[in-house]
Design brief:
single chain; 117 residues; mainly alpha; 434 Repressor (Amino-terminal Domain)
């Protein structure tokens, strides 16, 4: 039986700055010396997974979030108050999640609800 995992505390932050273009390299070097990493070369996650259509993404995100938390569908059903059969259908893309269900699932899965929409 799967056990619920503990949430990890994050020790990282993401910064965003505006300033003179001439000072960009100097600022980047100072931040690098402090242990920051330049992520400007990253790509959006949807571009990294082009095999998923916009319709499939909420289902994939729901299943991934549930697995990340180490929950079975039944355990998620108990936490969210959504029947297990509905969770199964949502994970297979057979049932729309909707805003109300997304908020209940997000609370149970310790994440933002918009990822399921």
């Amino acid at each position: 039986m799967l056990e619920r995992t503990r949430k990890r505390h994050t020790d990282t932050i993401e910064l965003c700055f505006r300033g003179p273009a001439a000072k960009k390299e100097e600022a980047a070097q100072v931040l690098k010396n402090l242990g920051f990493v330049d992520t400007s070369e990253t790509i959006p996650w949807r571009e990294a997974f082009p095999e998923y259509t916009d319709e499939e993404i909420p289902a994939v995100c729901l299943q991934a979030a549930r697995r990340r938390e180490g929950l079975t569908q039944k355990e998620l059903a108990d936490l969210s108050g959504i029947p297990q059969a509905h969770i199964s259908q949502m994970e297979r893309g057979k049932m729309a999640i909707g805003v109300t269900r997304a908020k209940r699932l997000a609370k149970a899965l310790n994440t933002g609800y918009k990822v399921f929409l």
